[in-house]
Backbone:
């Protein structure tokens, strides 16, 4: 009887059947988490690139004009949202013309966002420019700002929103300042 117990224990210890299944059961959850992590990281990176591309495109298209009608600006905002492919998620898109005051400090000449409002008051100090940007007297620079909160469709229960804030600057190409016009004769520069 003792020999039978010893033999059974020895057989159990030497038996390797089911080891692979046990190893897979231990490793599978890690592999699943890694898979979803890679998929989510790739999607977030792609969305980040789209937001950067949209900010650069908006600044570039606006800088090609000498004056912009508000209706044309609304079309630009619609195009930017299509570039970003937000899928209905709200994005704050703002275009600002920045000049300098008598002291050489950056001020807002005009601003407009995708809601049709002016988020910055005309003549207000503008602190969003990098220190390396220089603006000559009488000139301006176009600044596009995009704020977008990315929410994962796949793991939204586990991953919070990721804020993407992008800014792009461009010098006007056809004039030293770009004017914003609400109608044919009503412009501000």
Residues:
């Amino acid at each position: 009887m003792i020999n039978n117990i010893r033999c059974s224990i020895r057989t159990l210890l030497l038996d390797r059947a089911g080891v692979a299944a046990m190893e897979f059961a231990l490793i599978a959850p890690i592999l699943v988490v890694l898979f979803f992590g890679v998929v989510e990281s790739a999607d977030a990176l792609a969305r980040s690139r789209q937001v950067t591309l949209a900010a650069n495109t908006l600044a570039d298209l606006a800088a090609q004009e000498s004056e912009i009608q508000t209706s044309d600006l609304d079309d630009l905002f619609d195009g930017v949202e299509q570039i970003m492919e937000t899928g209905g998620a709200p994005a704050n898109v703002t275009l600002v013309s920045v000049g300098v005051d008598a002291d050489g400090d950056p001020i807002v000449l005009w601003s407009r966002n995708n809601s049709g409002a002016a988020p910055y008051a005309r003549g207000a100090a503008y602190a969003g420019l990098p220190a390396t940007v220089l603006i000559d007297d009488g000139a301006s620079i176009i600044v596009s700002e995009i704020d977008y909160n990315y929410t994962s469709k796949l793991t939204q229960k586990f991953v919070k929103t990721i804020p993407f804030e992008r800014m792009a600057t461009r010098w006007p190409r056809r004039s030293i300042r770009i004017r914003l016009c609400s109608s044919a004769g009503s412009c501000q520069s």
Notes: The longest helix spans residues 19-63.
